[in-house]
Amino acid sequence: xxxxxxxxxxxxxxxxxxxxxxxxxxxxxxxxxxxxxxxxxxxxxxxxxxxxxxxxxxxxxxxxxxxxxxxxxxxxxxxxxxxxxxxxxxxxxxxxxxxxxxxxxxxxxxxxxxxxxxxxxxxxxxxxxxxxxxxxxxxxxxxxxxxxxxxxxxxxxxxxxxxxxxxxxxxxxxxxxxxxxxxxxxxxxxxxxxxxxxxxxxxxxxxxxxxxxxxxxxxxxxxxxxxxxxxxxxxxxxxxxxxxxxxxxxxxxxxxxxxxxxxxxxxxxxxxxxxxxxxxxxxxxxxxxxxxxxxxxxxxxxxxxxxxxxxxxxxxxxxxxxxxxxxxxxxxxxxxxxxxxxxxxxxxxxxxxxxxxxxxxx
Length: 362
Fold this sequence. Notes:
Layout: E1 2-9, E2 21-22, E3 24-37, E4 43-47, E5 52-56, H1 69-82, E6 90-96, H2 106-121, H3 128-143, H4 150-157, E7 162-167, E8 172-177, E9 183-193, H5 198-215, H6 225-230, H7 237-261, H8 265-282, H9 288-297, E10 303-309, E11 314-322, H10 326-341, E12 346-349, E13 357-358
Parallel strand pairs: 4-6
Antiparallel strand pairs: 1-3, 1-13, 2-7, 3-6, 4-5, 7-8, 9-11, 9-12, 10-11
Helix pairs in contact: 1-2, 1-3, 2-3, 2-4, 3-4, 5-7, 7-8, 9-10
């Protein structure tokens, strides 16, 4: 049996595909998977939450049209086969408690649970850093999402009570103990997901790549505000603001790590608010629901900081809240959100936890 967690990201959004810095952590919500070898000529996977069974023919691996969760599993087995690793047939069942559409990376947790479990079951002797690349390629080639490495990395390699300052160029990380004393991280889920069309995502990537080309650098990771200003006349106002956001967000991630070391929670909160402002006004990936939730916290003395978390256009905000006031915070924010939008939000307390691991049977 294996447990593979979802993840949060403390700070550092849309910096991963610019070879920048992110600050994720594994959480105590995730996917549990039970698996055993099978003598059958088919592999069986049962999705307990959905009450759906799928049989895999290991000799015929290809993505399914509208395959949903099945493509994540097929992708892991298929990507192992591409590098010459064949596995035997297996029977498995999995279930999870990561809320869908909340931006906590249930997809990475599912991929990681299978690649880790197959590695154990068939003694493939893969390192965790090899496994996350299999998970990422499964998502690229079987699901069709050209994701960065952050989600798989945080889910697989997360450390209990620590967030990981991850360099998306070197794919190396440094753990930072998150000791918030009398504060707690709280997620507020808008329960909405506005259409993040492929064109909107591609536009942002294209802008970042265009600016990097104009600066003759590998990625915006290598840019400075002064170098960006030198080519400002070659960019539209919108393009300039998007690139400026990425540059400043990379700096904020570094400053956030210093604030953690100094236990400077006021600065941590201020950086969260600055990130949200940049995502909303410059990068333009927020929405009314997310902006509303963040704005409402600014009048609450018990909230140190808040921002939207994830790709944007819906999902969650992450909030740094005084532990003694969490009950009041939940009531106030829920009532205000319902009054404004006529739909309920969902609220989760999360604990920073260990990455993908075997579940003890004792």
